[in-house]
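Morning!

This is the sequence you dropped in the shared folder:
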Amino acid sequence: MDSIWSIVQNSADNALVGILGVTSETVTENQQQTSEVATTGVDPNSGVAQRPKQSPLMTFAPIILIFVVMYFLLFRGPRKKQQQHKQMVQALERNDKVRTIGGILGTVIDVKENEVTLKVDESNNTKIKVLPSAIGTNLSKEERK
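The structure's back. Tokens below.
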């Protein structure tokens, strides 16, 4: 019966004193044992050390860290590359040599909002129109660097 009382909280102990007829001496002993556990971290009855309680923030810290790493790996990296590609396409000028994502080499003739006209063959004067997203690299800018 004493071990059951050590588990019950102090407020519940006081309420049960009147109902069950338990003496106040038993309750005070249990309160002393509970206070010993709180101060020393060791239960005097079982001799087992109890772990101190962690803050909720420390419990969720690994999960929060995983979300931060996922943000940088999955969202920020591709957005940065997308912005660089957009700037490269906006900086295209006439006579720039480019390579498309399909591997076609050509010279820029005209740049519009939704299409880029490339001259592919000099001898036949062959021209193709591609989407701005199809431009892979600007070879003229790479040669200058």
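Headline: Residues 2-40 form one domain.

More detail when I'm at my desk.
O.
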